[in-house]
Amino acid sequence: MHIxxxxxxxxxxxxxxxxxxxxxxxxxxxxxxxxxxxLDDFYGSxxxxxxNLQIYFLNSRFRQILEIRESGKNIIQDRTIYEDAHIFAPNxxxxxxxxxxxxxxxxxxxxxxERLVSPPDLMIYLRASIPTLVGQIHKRGRDFENTISxxxxxxxxxxxxxxxTTYKKGKLLIIDIDNLNIVDNPEDLGSIIDRIDAQIHxxx
Length: 204
Hints:
By secondary structure, this protein is α/β, with parallel strands linked by helices. The protein has helices at 13-24, 39-44, 46-71, 81-94, 100-114, 130-140, 150-164, 186-201, and strands at residues 2-7, 27-29, 75-78, 122-127, 171-176.
């Protein structure tokens, strides 16, 4: 079983991944933020480092998917390869922060990789408003995220919504998290678990 959690920066993917991994005894696969050699540079100079960052993510996510497939375990994954290709890279290109040449190179590489990977058995999309995202980003206090603008988050949210309405690769569960507190309120987490059980086991 391969479950994946998608959502904008600050949507709560890592938190939900941890909680669901604990509940279901799934093995979590997290996004490698601490090990990423480009993040600090990227947020300091997006235009200079956008292509390097996106290639790093693409490489990391592709390797992760192959490891998931080879493991034979029940895996829950924090962020997906599709978000890199359909949201973050196109957004950087549209903002003039990635050249046409680099974006074309990136798209060609992703298309090649996509032929070799299988989509998750269940995609969970965390939908969040900008105030929720900003609050979560400030709360976790990562230095390199201090320069993220409201405009950047808004553009990403628009792309997430456009992408998720066309997602047809497998089962999809959309969770609005604005009024949920999955850390401090067990009932909120329980409601999400019930909805996941329904998707996995076909319950109504």
